């Protein structure tokens, strides 16, 4: 069985189809229900040629950008097959190419061919052009036709990217005659697809293969074509590219205009009778100051017959009357179908703005008709025709609008992803640093140049040498220093004192690819629930939940709104939206829901996802505790890297790697027990068996270590060779494309080398463990160091062959060892383990890991939905049969880079800033029925005074704040006079902000918070219990200043557990005391991104016992433009019992 990429099994009964630089075979997809795919395989030896390598690269890049179009073949997978070493591309399967299809289903007329195939092919090429891609090899063999007759353009192997054109490896001489134009290169590269499309049309309509350019020119003159179309196609195949249509878009517009004119000329003009009422005549006389009804009637008829569009108009008060709008150049006539007269009765006239009328006519019906004044009896046949055709127009318009709405939504999300990719290109400038400190898994780097807040969250890497890198995510910056979180297992000590942080496109590209894959899966119905597309677009309404009545809740302290939400979720068959403002117990709701599902439907597989690790882990910890307390069977797993600091330490035992290891260990122990039992039954001494097994284990561990070391050496040698090749290529600017591909190969080889080095460490640990185990036997203790491999084999044989059943037992041992070697080593095994779990937790993008690719879920719960982009949320949703979306639309949306360059890139892709910030939660709240939306409104986290402030300022007073457990020690120790306290710097002459290296700092506010911490320490010591304190700001520079202050004074407040962070990073978390440093204060009244009310909502809703706002209240009152602080100040001044101002 010939398998590619551990996923595709080649069908030997078909093909192969041999192309010039690749071959195509049919295969089945093991991860998609054995669906047929077309597997395009590039020969391993030929791939060493630059031209083949370039063709593969271009095809992959083109299809990743374009496969969302209905008439461009869909990309399923791509990569390099490990066994054969061949690169491959897997595409959707189509039954035949266009040439083969037309032999069985000929279309000898231009109209028939264009309607069935030509228009779709042209639209696909036009879409590719809009994405800056030229196909450059259009011919009937590169257009496939599926079982439904849908034409799909394929084979982008020699495509050219217009926007990113670079000199280097070129495929310009690689062309198919006569489909490609005769010139090899010209100043008109965009006309190549124009020429090819025209030749394709001539061959398909003519029904005869065209062998050379002479045959093309002969066909253009002799084939039966409409005159205007013939003229266009003759220009397309002109040997002078300057005389062709400029590009495929221009060609499409010319053909469509010609087709529209032909349709108009071929249409039959209908006479439509019109009856002019006295009211209409009087209105026209008044509008035009006409002296008689005859003149008014003539004016009306002239207006109607000059230009007219027909559309629906608001219904009249008369039941059954259907009013129409007749839209002319200057008037809108109100008309009604008069059944008695069998005519259109004009009952109203109104002059309108001509521009508005033109826009209205563009979407109205514009039939080819002649309006005539009706006699005593009109024309029933004409009126029946008018009613029938108008009804058909309205239906078609609704269908078209529905299709446009579907396409618009997915196209908008695709554009946003393209904008993100473009913004990544803008971020490629390295960050130079000249100082390094190490803090656990973090690097603190001193930047040489000013840095803005926009770098926060970027993936960056540092090259240690030719082979090794350190990589991570920028957690924050204060303009001078950069905090890079690197995670576990990296050699941070090797980072040089000077160097540069380069953009690490690997992680961002992986993230983008996962989102593109999920978007395409949903768009084309390849996800677990194909109708998710229809639910997203509003074409299908999700079913109304049917809450079960017999729910016995596990948590006794659930309030009524959570109980109702749980019932609704249990009765949901499609989609439920759960809005949960801060402190309303979203995690408690999720915990109860998971427990109820596991109890009511054992064996259900639940996917719990979130865009933040904090929210996800908080829910998983609570679910595990409840399951244990209530004896609910639960097998859970957390998808994340082992040692990742962002994962709660409480969940280390649920990490996939750990769980698989435990499963492996249990299986090993069962294997050993079987071997011992078998030995006892056949009179084999257990002690001897143990010694034999220990020797076998030691021997195999030594072999594994040796092989691992050899693999590392080989990887290092290959990496060195690639680096040498890079040095050579860097000298030749003309080989830029080849250099880019080589750099990508080096990155992959670096990752492979790192993995090989990690495998050596694992093998070394295993070998040491096997050695220690062997030393535990007295018979071996003194011999281990001196035993050769040959000695071990002989001793193993002697110990095992002391019985006549020894040889058979040895075979069992060998079989068991081989099984151990394979057991648990592949990602498929991880998938098998996950398939056996009840609850799988992972971030939105983390659940797209290879181990979960073939896993489907019965229920998907997404928490903190406001933090995820639509395409990020689609990743987990695409894998599930129903969805519970939990979040708060008044919390912070996904981060959007607000730099000038990023805004321009968004504009270039047609994406507005508000659209880039719009989440799927916002979309669902807008389109989902109210019956599929519930709200959690009982707020427990914040004490009532804080909760009331948040409710009034951000939730229109809807929250029910029930927590009245105030902390008296805060006031007694003079730390906070009221639960909500504003430390006001307005009277301080040093209150003004400082702008420093791309961020803002306010030293006065830092000093005020420093004094506050001393008072909080006093309160904590009197309370005899610690406070958790969160020091927050919107700006990384201020956070860094607060962090330095808190670290320097840490010994002065031992009873305070202090954390610092930006408001954005602290969403989803809580603390006893939250201190928000506004930071901004300036004469101009500018607050930058602090104007967003969602950010202020997050900042003020983190506190449980005490909320402190530090800043200039006079400045906050006088902010220009949008000002979320105004309502907070107004509330605080109106509630002196709960809120206080303290002058600093």
UniProtKB/TrEMBL annotation:
SUPFAM superfamilies: P-loop containing nucleoside triphosphate hydrolases, Protein kinase-like (PK-like). GO terms for molecular function: ATP binding; helicase activity; protein kinase activity. The keyword Nucleotide-binding does not apply. CDD domains: DEXXQc_Upf1-like (cd17934), SF1_C_Upf1 (cd18808), STKc_PknB_like (cd14014). Signal peptide: none annotated. Residues 1-259 form the Protein kinase domain. PROSITE patterns: PROTEIN_KINASE_DOM, PROTEIN_KINASE_ST. Keywords: Coiled coil. Residues 705-732 form a coiled coil. The keyword Acetylation does not apply. Pfam families: AAA_11, AAA_12, Pkinase. This is Protein kinase domain-containing protein. It comes from Mesorhizobium kowhaii.
